[in-house]
Design goal:
The protein has twelve helices and 29 strands. It is of the alpha+beta class. The protein folds into three domains: 13-62 and 152-299, no CATH class; 64-150, Sporulation related repeat (Alpha-Beta Plaits, 2-Layer Sandwich); 316-525, no CATH class. The strands form seven sheets. Strands 1, 2, 3, 4, 11, 12, 13, 14, 15, 16, 17 and 18 form a twelve-stranded mixed beta sheet that branches. A hairpin with a 2-residue loop joins β7 (102-105) and β8. The radius of gyration is 24 Å and the shape is globular. Bound molecules: zinc ion (ZN) (2 copies). Residues 266-267, 274-275, 279-280 line the site of one zinc ion.
Length: 525
């Protein structure tokens, strides 16, 4: 399917999953929309109306999946083949899957995100795959993956409020705007906040919207929009509208590069490239548009980060804590750009100890180094929201609380928790591997995000932390005090540091040159 681009629109579009898992959806169109089935059969000519529509799901059948355990991904086919063969020799069924491919803009290849994934096991039941995952956990950083065996199907029914118009389709519906000012409001969109009380909001979108039956057999919606329309939405959600303009521009370039570099390898089972939640980036359409964000996206139109002629999968983090982290230390998927962590240093005078050593990490986390993202005494509006309280933080958890969290999240009962022992730290002091010592069993946890999630009800602010165990009079552990630095994975652009640099008069190019050494900005559309 192609979308006709209006003159002046970028040559890159993104398909964004807006919602999933609804039994009914209510929406209102404002402006001219035509209604088609998803395969393009015209159901209703465009006319200008403010009609409110309701969409219902008739009976449906959910998707059937095959489950397996992803153990590693490689950029080189040979390496993936070799590992897959090793598993075969040990008696596991294993498969190599190729994902991604060349990345093109206007017929020009600007990078390649091809990956060869090694998947072990092949199960119709998710629990069987989970069991295997548990066994592979010590030697790999495994992840459960699923692939569609039989796609969900079902019938959707669309009617207007006055019940004068009624359409049915087993193929889903597509609403296509025929003027640039047309907007659609979806009522009661769940914000997927992760809280048990699910907040909802009405969200307004520009661009084509498709409704279809999702994997659960419920109603889902997606939109296909020019990338800059998407960026206006996500940069507004990810940053403060009171960020200095040059920091906003740097963020727009980073987000644009990341989206183009990774959109084809994120949602392999879905009819869209990116979801509208934190997993990809929060997208709420034109609901929360801000002029300053729109200006930053427009001013950087087509600007993409490159390294050695290849697009950079550029990441960003809220507060690095004083030093950014190596890309390859953080993700199990090989990155396209092997960015090394750098001191988040505005003055070039900061003294950084070796943060991979326990002594160095301790001195660092217990002090407040004068890094860009240390906003002590800096009068920056953005500092209020993400700077100060996350630069250094402390949280106390009951021993029993952590035991319960571990049991809930891993299914493993470690007995009485004795200690959390650092095994390996990355360049920014972030823990990449820890041992959790218990009376019944010990647990080795790898990867910074997994560490942050398993020692917290939600997730710790970062994995750059120190552990102090407080014991009762008998010497039994009672509480664990975690003292930490930074907020987020620490890779790429430090948003708080960028805000500081911009307020000190640095331009977006200079900010990006600092966090992405040896990279250049090139305008490609
Ligand atoms: Zn996603
Ligand atoms: Zn920083």
């Amino acid at each position: 399917m192609t979308t006709q681009l209006l003159p002046g629109n970028p040559p890159v579009t993104v398909r964004v999953g807006l919602l999933e898992g609804y039994e009914r959806v209510t929406f209102r169109c404002s402006g001219r929309y035509r209604i088609e089935t998803r395969s393009g059969e015209l159901l209703r000519e465009a006319d200008s109306s403010e009609l409110k529509w309701r969409l219902l799901r008739e009976k449906s059948t959910p998707t059937r999946f095959l489950y397996s355990v992803l153990v590693a991904s490689f950029q080189k086919r040979d390496e993936a083949m070799a590992l897959a063969e090793q598993f075969e020799e040990k008696g596991f069924s294993s498969a190599m899957r190729q994902i991604g491919g060349p990345i093109e803009i206007e017929g020009q290849v600007i990078g390649d995100n091809t990956l060869y994934r090694v998947q072990v096991g092949n199960f119709q039941e998710e629990n069987d795959a989970r069991e295997l995952l548990g066994k592979l956990e010590l030697d790999y950083a495994p992840r459960l993956v699923r692939e569609v065996l039989v796609q969900a199907s079902g019938k959707l029914e669309l009617f207007d409020q006055s019940l004068e118009q009624h359409y049915e389709s087993t193929d889903g519906f597509r609403l296509v705007p025929e003027e640039t000012t047309a907007r659609m409001t979806l009522f009661g969109v769940r914000m997927n906040s992760g809280f048990s009380y699910e907040p909802m909001e009405d969200r307004m979108y520009s661009g084509m919207i498709e409704f279809y039956v999702d994997h659960e057999g419920d109603i889902a919606a997606l939109t296909e929009i020019p990338i800059d329309t998407y960026l206006r939405g996500v940069v507004a959600a990810d940053t403060n509208s009171d960020l200095p303009p040059e920091a906003m521009k740097a963020q727009a370039i980073v987000s644009r590069s990341l989206v183009i570099a990774t959109k084809t390898v994120k949602h392999l089972n879905d009819p869209y490239d990116l979801c509208a939640h934190v997993h990809c980036q929060i997208y709420s359409g034109v609901t929360h548009q801000s002029d300053s964000v729109n200006e930053a996206v427009t001013a950087t139109r087509g600007n993409i980060l490159f390294h050695n002629g290849s697009i950079v999968d550029a990441h960003f983090t809220q507060v690095c804590g004083g030093h950014t982290e190596d890309v390859q230390a953080t993700w199990m998927t090989p990155p396209m750009y092997l960015g090394r962590g750098v001191p988040c240093d505005c003055t070039g005078t900061m003294d950084v100890p070796d943060l991979t050593s326990e002594g160095g990490a301790r001195r660092w986390i217990q002090s407040r180094p004068k890094s860009c993202c240390n906003l002590d005494g800096v009068d920056l509006p953005a500092g209020k929201s993400f700077g100060r309280k996350h630069f250094r933080w402390e949280t106390t958890l009951l021993r029993s609380e952590i035991e319960e969290i571990l049991l809930t999240k891993t299914g493993i009962d470690i007995g009485m928790l004795y200690d959390i022992v650092p095994i390996r730290r990355g360049r920014s002091g972030r823990l990449m591997e820890v041992d959790i010592l218990g009376s019944l069993s010990n647990l080795r946890i790898k990867r910074e995000l997994r560490i942050r999630r398993l020692i917290s009800h939600t997730a710790l602010e970062s994995s750059a932390f120190l552990v102090e165990v407080l014991c009762d009079s008998q010497g039994n552990p009672m509480e664990l005090v975690l003292t930490g630095a930074g907020w987020g994975h620490g890779v790429g652009l430090c948003q708080a540091g960028a805000a500081r640099m911009a307020s000190d008069g640095k331009r977006a190019e200079e900010i990006l040159a600092h966090y992405f050494p040896d990279c250049v900005i090139d305008k490609r559309y």
